[in-house]
Amino acid sequence: MTYAVKECFLTLQGEGMQSGSRAVFLRFAGCNLWSGREEDRETAQCRFCDTDFVGTDGEGGGKFNSAEGLSAHVEALWGQGADGRLVVITGGEPMLQLDRALVEALHDRGFRIAVESNGTLAATPGIDWLCISPKAGTEVVQRSGDELKLVWPQEDIDPAALERWDFRHFLVQPMDCATRERSVDAAIRLVMDRPRWRLSLQAHKVVGLP
Ligand SMILES: C[S@@+](CC[C@H](N)C(=O)[O-])C[C@H]1O[C@@H](n2cnc3c(N)ncnc32)[C@H](O)[C@@H]1O
Ligand SMILES: Nc1nc2[nH]cc(C(=O)O)c2c(=O)[nH]1
Ligand code: SF4
Ligand SMILES: [Mg+2]
Predict the structure, then answer these.
(1) Is 210 annotated as a binding-site member?
(2) Atom of ligand 1 nearest to the CA of 53
(3) Is 177 annotated to bind ligand?
(4) N or C: more exposed end of the chain, with fewer CB within 10 A?
(5) Does the reported pTM lie above 0.90?
(6) Is 118 in the pocket of ligand 3 (CB under 6 A)?
(7) CA 119, CA 167: separation in Å to the nearest integer?
(8) Model confidence over 127-176: pLDDT tens digits?
(9) Which domains are seen in the chain, by residue range?
(10) Residues near 71 by beta carbon (within 8 Å), at least 6 away in sequence
(11) 3-state SS class at 58
(12) Which residues are catalytic?
């Protein structure tokens, strides 16, 4: 298996229940809901993406020919020390590329594996922390996991329906866009109305981390 990696770097997890944790981010290239080209955004299935996941030219990116080689790259970015090893695998859509061999190779190097996925593809077995972020108008097949992270507001998504899915944590994250302040207000309103939900802010953007 050849893996196409947009970028790979050490930072803090900025979103969700593990916000604030030291983590290597492994961002795979490519997504099944958007080409990543601006000229396609308005006709894409997912139109609010805040991420460049096209190509393999980012910091620490490239093509990797084996799970062994990619896991060694992740380990080198983490550095010395066996405590608290965490890799966050994202994209693009990571389930297009994350296979059992990579899960195994990262576990062998002592990493806990967190994944950020849109849920339209079944999750690879062995993930330690699964975050699913549903997108309006798509068929979410992965309806269980550790945290469900709803970017808000999105038309045609009913938070009450999502509460019936099998997740331990329900998070609402304001959509970062031209009207971000309105997104924050709407997210706070959702939490006030539905106490099972918690607010997830993108902490990395607040403090200027990647
Ligand atoms: C770039 S996506 C990559 C992983 C996967 N494709 C997904 O959508 O979950 C990582 C996270 O950022 C969230 N996200 C993307 N664009 C956003 C935006 N404009 N504002 C807030 N969160 C956003 C996604 O919903 C997802 O939870
Ligand atoms: N610091 C940081 N935390 C994140 N959590 C989820 C992210 C993502 O793009 O998947 C992300 C990201 O891009 N940066
Ligand atoms: S599914 Fe995720 S990576 Fe793909 S376009 Fe939407 S937010 Fe971006
Ligand atoms: Mg991001």
Answers:
(1) yes
(2) 1
(3) no
(4) N
(5) yes
(6) yes
(7) 13
(8) 999 999 999 999 999 999 999 999 999 999 999 999 999 999 999 999 99
(9) 3-207 (3.20.20.70)
(10) 102, 105, 106, 108, 109, 111
(11) coil
(12) 25, 31, 46, 49-51, 116, 204
